[in-house]
Amino acid sequence: MSNYLLAWIVLIPFVSSVILGISYLYSIKVKKISNKFFTFLALLAPMSSFVLGVGFFFGLKNGVSEYLYEPYTWLGVDNYIINMGFLGDKLSIFMVLFITFIGSMIHIYAAGYMKEDEGYGKFFAYFNLFVASMLLLVLANSPLIMFIGWEGVGLCSYLLIGFYFSEPLNVVAGNKAFIANRVGDFGFLVGILFLFVYVGKLGFSYGALEEYVGIVPNHILVIIGVSLFIGAMGKSAQIPLYVWLPDAMAGPTPVSALIHAATMVTAGVYMVARFHFIYDLIPSVGVFIAYIGAFSALYAAIIAMRQTDIKKILAYSTISQLGYMFIAVGLGAYSSGLFHVFTHAFFKALLFMGAGAIIIALHHEQNIFKMGGLRKRLPLIYIVMLVANLAISGIPPFAGFFSKDEILLKAYEHQEYLIYGIGLFTAALTSYYMFRFFFVTFEGKNYISKNLEPISASMKIPLVILAIGATFSGFVGLPEVFGGTNMIHQWLSNWSVDSTHVENFKEIVLMGISVAAGLIGIAVAYVKFFKYDFNQDIKESGIIYNKFYIDELIDFLIIRRVRQISVFVSVVVDDGIIDKTVMLLSSGFINLGRRVGRMQSANTRAYAFFMLIGLSSFSLYLIFKLG
Amino acid sequence: MHIGLLTFIIFLPLVMAFILMVLPISMKLTRNIAFLTTIVVFLLSLSIFLRFRLTDYMQFREFHPWISTYGIYYSLGVDGFSMIILMLITTLIPVGYLFLWKTRKSKGYWASMLLMQTGVTGALLSLDLILFYFFWESMLLPVFMIIGIYGSGNRIFSTLKITIYTIMGSLFMLVSILYLGVQFYNEFGVWSFQLSDLVQITIMSPTQQTLLFFGFIIAFAIKIPLFPFHTWLMQTYSNSPTGGVFILSSIMAKLGIYGIVRFVLPLFPHQYVEFAPYFMWLGVFGLIYFGVAALMQQNIKRMFAYSSASHLSLITAGIFSLNIYGMTGAAFLIAAHAMATGGLFLLVGTIEHDLGIRSISGLGGIAKKAPLLTVAFALMILSIVGLPGTNGFVSEFLIVLGLFKYNNFIGIVSATTVLVAASFMFWMFQRAILVKTDNNISKMKDLDKKEIIGIFGLAVVIIAMGLYPHWFLYKIEPTLQHYLVDILKVGVSS
Amino acid sequence: MKYDDIIYLLPLLSIGVGAVVLMLLSPIKSFSINRLSWVTLFFLVFAFGATALNFGHVYSATPFKDIFSSMLITDTFSGYFSSIIITGGIVTVLVGSHYFEKANMLRGEVFSLLLFSVFGMMLLVQTTELLTAFIALEIASISLYSLMGFQKNNVKRVEGAFRYLVLGSIAGIMLLLGTTLMYAGTQSTNILEIAKYISAHPHANTTLVITGGTLILITFLFKIAAFPFQNWSMDAYEGAPLPITAFMASTFKVAIFGFILRFVLVDFHELKSIWNDMLFYIAILTMIYGSLLAVFQTSLKRMLSASSIVHTGYLLIAFVSISNIGESAATSIIFYLIAYFLSSMGAFGMLSYIASDDHLRVTYEDFKGFAHIRPYMAAMMSIFMLSLAGIPSTIGFIGKFYIFVGAIQAGYTVLAIIGIFATFISVYYYFKLIALMYFYPSSEMTNVPPLKGMTPLFIGIMALLIIWGGIGNTLISYFPGIDFLIDTARFAYQSLFM
Amino acid sequence: MIDTIFLILASFALFGAGCMIMLSNTVHSALGFIVTILALAGLYALLDASFLFMVQIIVYAGAIIALLLFVIMFLNIQQSHAPKEPSKYLFMVVSAIIMMPVDYLLFKAFYTITDIKNFSVTPKDFGDVKMLGGELFRNWLLPFEAISLLLLVALIGAVVMARKKERA
Amino acid sequence: MEVSFMSYILLAIILFSMGIIGVISRKNIFIVYMSLELMLNSINLMLVTLSKHFGNMDGQIMAMMVIAIAAAEAAIFLSLIVALYKLKHSINIDDYNTLKQKGTL
Predict the structure, then answer these.
(1) C107-133: average pLDDT
(2) Which H or E run includes E11?
(3) Same structural domain for residues D23 and D70?
(4) Of chain D residues 52-91, which have a CB less than 8 A from chain E?
(5) A580 and A539, same structural domain?
(6) What's the number of domains chain E is made of?
(7) What helix, strand, coil percent values describe chain C, rounded to 5?
(8) What does the alpha-carbon distance between residue C345 and residue C459 come to, in Å, rounded to a whole number?
(9) Does the N-terminal peptide bond of residue B225 adopt cis geometry, omega within 30 degrees of 0?
(10) In this structure, are A503 and A595 located in the same domain?
(11) Is the CB of residue A238 less than 8 Å from the CB of residue A322?
(12) Host domain of residue E65
């Protein structure tokens, strides 16, 4: 594979997006263009990128260490030179592959999901723009170029959350996402700046950074590490910047599947892995990250237990699962974290798409307590959702088991028992709330059955493919205990830190414990919800249902205060003090003039008297001057 | 005698303005000819850009005696820094014309626009301080006319306010210029107001220099405007017509920055370095102050005024950062912000043209009626908030980097720029453009062909500058290096 | 050479003869105002031509030395000032004939008195003898009193004239007293001989001379309306008919400066610095007082009157600077005088052409939307306002530039700053008029004179002159530019010392 | 002898001037002024200015003051017309105090030339018409001519202002 | 005691001051006028004294001219007084205040 093709991985979706956007505008302004055209163009892009990605994958597999393509100097000021560079190493190609693959699936799914929508072309324009940005993010060879993709995906997220922009809530959610991400980006930017200032002169590609990062003083590295992680917090919805993700579910379901579950939110994990050379030097920050991840996982899981909106449940589960990933990368087990990214992409995309299918089928009903008994009526969906639920609950042999278990194992290995405990507990909670949702949706009694909307084939095919993926993708990382070779670890050997390994027996015991935790969760859910009676008028409420009132708290503590300050600044300080001072000075001068104007009294004697005073003072002056 | 290209660039609009005013032709013909004039000027300046050599000295010099008794010369020249702004001006003005096309104004409007162009390009290109002052004041008159005649609201008051405010500033500058000239005479025995001559003065005490420094700074600070000289801005922007606010925000404010770099920096290098930290802090303070104030504004133009002030404060911080990054970033942000803000004001102008003047709460749902306008609007906002991939990001990054190089803390504070603008811009976008409300917006029309051409040109440049900034930047660098190394003597990356 | 002497005296003579001729013509009923004004113009233009004969070089002569005992001098300096004064007369006649017709002042004596006034002023700048100067001043003043009090039914006129007369007499007495003291100090009243005496007795006690000079200076400060002798000017300018106000405010000021510059430069060149501290504060107070007064006026005429006080202040800045940088400061005064003359003569002239000071278009408000009715007139008016405000591209800017550079060079930076401050304030009241003319939709205006005839043409020429004086340069070969004006002023200065 | 005459005339002059500025009746003060003028005329004579002595009496007392009194009569100014001036003495005191520096300065200035000795010695025909006329037409022709024009202007002015109501 | 030059000068100065005092403190328009004339007269006295003091005639000639000027002024002054009296029916100088500045505080 030629190096320059790396650029095309990004360019194809980008160009496709631009063409789609222009044709969409053409379509609504001038002449209608058929959806087929959009579909064709939209699907072509991620698939082509995927094919290119596969090409690079084999290239790397056959011994090429990395592909590098730097077409031009992006920015060169003084001796800071940043090239527009694309780096195809094992990590990025790994990311490219699963992004384009999942992306293609969700494109196909969306073609069905959105087919009635009048913003069809626009949707795919945004979608491909997102894919392009995401690919730029992972393929960039420099943190700054990565930042372009980083913000690009944030923008697309904003655009897609507010896809139905006439509704205020959607736009508000989009804004929330963007601003929260911006808070993270602020941290990210500060991190980049520190890095830039300390090592930028020696080059700012990852390679150069890795080589020279040693010259950065340790305390600065800590700042850099934390700042960059703040960026990851924003993008990957970790405490405390997670607040946007549940609201982001306002977007169309494929968006939630692609962006807010499978790909974009994992950018933070990717970023930490990409900067592993920094985090390797500052293990304390790594532990901090792991703790943040653990608490996010637990916290989100707790909230998810009481949610009623199907997509909100999935959103919180996403936060929770992202927490697991951060546990892994925080502890230096980058490849384990990425393994979970990989498997999570499958089952979470599957969950969302399944949920989307349910929502479509039920005429945009999202409350799980208004569903029920769908098992027989949507058998395919039932099956794939079962697979996905088992996967997320960590039941072997589904994909989630391998990756999640590995993370718990790593936590245990690093002797972070608290994290391990939290992780384990969260695993139980996870299986509980997922099966709560599952049972309420598909089982139960006394539900009201409504007419179902038919689900199109283009929605079903990706479901099946992903279900297969969710089942078997775990086997690429089959633990050595089971005689497998963890291919992910092998592939990402640069990113897997060797650490003390527990004995096989202990490992199996630990696996057993986590599976047991999962099963306990399922059991509790079964007891409580399998025979859920829809007649009972249950209203979820309480502090957990209300997400610990965090949104209200933020609104009260930050947003309202900022608005008050804003009003204060513009009304009191600007208009009241500064402008008033200026105006007072000028009107004061005019008023002084009016007072002085009284001297023009048209009184001859007064004038003469005034002259006399002048004459007299002249004389006095001369008397003194002449001595 | 020899008349150079720069003279044509400066005076062609002036001559055309007079011809158009005197000839008894219709408004439409006037407008078309005026537009053609700006296009010609654009082509002329493009030829300058392409023939520009990569050096740090003044190029395309023109030098003729004017008032020889006082050594005042008609002296023009362009270097890397002014070339960027020249290109900016000559590119933006035709775009502005495309948007102003449909405004049913009189001939005087178009003549004033041309006069304004002469004023700004003249001020930009003159190297003699008196000549500079000459243009600097002259460009105020067309603004005065445009806002006063075609403005809205309390336009007369705000016109007088801007006039008096800016003239106050420039008069301070005049005293400083004269003082410099006299000092030069005292030292060398001949009169001169040439920049290249005045920098050679050595006999001034630090106190004198500091006072003169502030004499200049006040003039430029009012024009920019910096805190606390900004209160004219909000009223003027909200009351002036599209053309006026477009020129004011995207071009004239930038000339304030330009003035600091062109004149204050070489004339008072010591003071420049000495007071740089204060101005950096002032800039960063302004960035946040104006940003916060913008949040709750009801009038879009007023909000943009605050937004402008916020960004211009950042630019000011950048040029005082005493290293090449901050200065390059500032130069780049001048261009980026001019395009984005100019574009925004033009778009708001079309909204205003269709719907009349409304506050943010009086709008809403425009996106459905005018998707093209919305797309353009969004792009400009993205540039303003510094989204990577647009030119806004590159410049903000460089400025923040420059400040960071100076002092980590101020760098971190200035990095909040990514938050500040985003918060109010997106909120405004949500309320005014996207979300559907009960307001009657049936008169809203989407962009017409000319506007599409104009805004498309801007959009392409914005994206191109975001994706390949180096191509736009490398011609400035020698100039800025020259400033930093030879004049300020602080080195490129202190 | 008697012939040369007559040539030198021709301007003065023709004006004097003209005045007498007009006096004789005025009772004849068949001579309408129009015809009389043509006759007046003839004499004025003739005198101007006679003055112009000697333009362009430095000369100095005392015609009929034996007869007039060297009391009369014609040099570049006097030629310069005479031509300004004559131009002032021409503009006043052009503007005035229209005004007088409108204001029902059908008296031919007006032109006679005007010429007498011009004669007095010319004599003032040509004489080297203090008593003659006093008489010349009285000729000019008494003609002006009469011109002001012409419409004796109008209280404003008569009262303005009366106040001017009373206070002017006091000022005249100061001049006389000063002359007496000079005579006491030097036994002579001839400026040239006084100068000789002073330089011949460098160590003599100069108290008398200085006190006398101070008293003469006070008269001068009174006539140019400097603080604290400024109060009369508002009333006199307000009271006078507009063309006469124009004539007083611009031309008379020029003549006074012509005299005092000669007096101070020739006699007090060495001693002048003794007044500097005093004049320093007077300049400041004059500018501030004028600004304060002008800033709240509603009547345009009063605003222009008040602003003329401010311009006096600017001139005083240069006057203070003379002792440190003699030549350039004096030249800057001479230059500024022509700048101010053009601008204020134009502004007053325009005002008197389009307004009558009693009922039509008195205040700012009355000019709302004027630009839409008479765009060219509004443009001219704007040019005059801009020039008065000292905005670049007008001659007013160059004049101020000159003065402020001089002040800084002489070490009076504070004065320059205060001057700048006054300029800044002046922007407000000058631009207010422009704003009102342009920014309001056209309103109903009655009786707006048309843009045709000699008067607007001449005012237009003055507007063009202002622009030319602001940007004119030597780009066009052999076409005089600003340098030409500055050089002319410099020649005038140099001719004083021949 | 001269001393005595001077003192008498000076006190007359001061007395007249004092009457003039203090009396409230217009005609009375005019009479006071005449006293001063006549006293001054006497002083002129004392100073060998015989022609001026005559001019002073003829022109001032005879013409100007007569004209003034004529105007007062013409306008029929009664005592009742005279303005009420309750605070005129206060004004006088204040203005006299303000006037002090001026007086002092003038006095001081003139004091510098007292050393010229020949104050009482003058040529025989000093101040008579012949000498004055000769001087006037030899050395003072220009102001003399100018004065004639001034009088002409004053004439025109007075005529213009005193003329009856304008024709329309 | 000898009558010196300074005696005359002193007298003239006192008369001059009285003239100014008269102008400032009196409201009667005629007395104001006479005070002005008094000032002129005091200057004449100075001129004549100086003339004698220096022994040349210039002072006297100037004094004569001052008298002529005073006559010219008298003509104008009195005609203005007549005109004003006809309009205002007052000889109080303070009553002539038509031109008073308006709009003051």
Answers:
(1) 88
(2) helix E5-25
(3) yes
(4) 52, 55-56, 59-60, 63-64, 67-68, 71-72, 74-75, 77, 81-83, 85, 88-89, 91
(5) no
(6) 1
(7) 75, 0, 20
(8) 9
(9) yes
(10) no
(11) yes
(12) 5-94
Smallest CA–CA distance from D102 into chain C, residue: C211
**Do residues D158 and D123 both lie within one domain?**
no
Shortest distance between the Cα of C352 and any Cα of chain A, in A, equals: 23
CATH number of D103's domain: 1.20.120.1200
- Hey, which chains touch A, using 3+ CB pairs under 8 Å? B, C, D, E
A65 and chain E: CB distance < 8 Å anywhere?
Answer: no
Residue A503 lies in a domain: yes
C-alpha A23/C-alpha A29 separation (Å) is 10
Give the A window 554-613 contacts with D, CB below 8 Å.
605, 609, 612-613
Residue E99 lies in a domain: no
For residue C103, what pLDDT is reported? Answer: 64
Whether A522 and A599 map to the same domain: the answer is no
Contacts of E66 in chain D (CB under 8 A): none
CB contact under 8 A, C408 and B175: yes
Chain A residues inside the 8 Å CB shell of C291: 593
If asked whether residues A531 and A617 sit together in one domain, one would say no
The DSSP symbol for A494 reads G
Rounded CA-CA distance B8/A574 in Å is 42
Cβ contacts of D160 on chain C, cutoff 8 Å: 107, 109, 113, 146, 149-150
Same domain (yes/no): A506, A610? no
A197 vs B215: CA distance, rounded Å: 35
Question: For residue range B112-130, what is the model confidence (pLDDT) as tens digits?
Answer: 888 999 999 999 999 999 9
* Among A612, A622, A626, beta carbon nearest to D95: A612
Strands A80-88 and C74-75: unpaired
Tell me the nearest-neighbour CA distance from B77 into chain C, angstroms: 18
pLDDT at C104 (0 to 100):
61
D15 and D75 share one domain:
yes
Beta carbons of A78 and B325 less than 8 Å apart = yes
Domain boundaries, position D38: 2-127
E88 part of a folded domain: yes
A388 and A504 share a domain? yes
C69 touches chain E (CB under 8 A): no
* E87 contact D CB<8A: no
Query: What's the complex ipTM?
Result: 0.90
Residue A613: which of D91, D98, D105 has the nearest Cβ?
Answer: D98
Cα B15 from Cα D133, distance rounded (Å): 69
* Closest residue in chain A to residue E97, using alpha carbons only: A602
The total of structural domains in chain A comes to: 2
- pTM value is 0.90
Report pLDDT digits (tens) over C34-90. 788 888 889 999 999 888 887 777 888 887 777 787 888 888 888 889 999 999 998
**Close Cβ partners of B405 (under 8 Å, ≥ 6 residues apart):** A197, B321, B323, B325, B326, B411, B493, B494
User: Are C187 and E54 in contact (CB < 8 Å)?
Assistant: yes
The distance of D161 to chain C (nearest Cα, Å) reads 6
Give residues 60 to 119 of D whose Cβ lies within 8 Å of C: 105-106, 108-110, 112-113
By the 8 A CB rule, do C73 and C239 touch?
no
Rounded CA separation A109/A120 (Å): 13
Same domain flag for D76 and D122: yes
Give the C-alpha separation, B154 to A271, whole Å: 53
Given a cut of 50, the residues of chain B with pLDDT beneath it are none
Q: How many domains does chain D have?
A: 2
Residue showing tokens 């910047």:
A241
Is residue A379 located within the same domain as residue A419? yes
Domain of residue A597, residue span: 559-626
Of E20, E62, E103, the CB nearest to C131: E62
Q: Do chains B and D touch (3 or more CB pairs under 8 A)?
A: no
The whole-angstrom separation of Cα B311 and Cα B316 is: 9
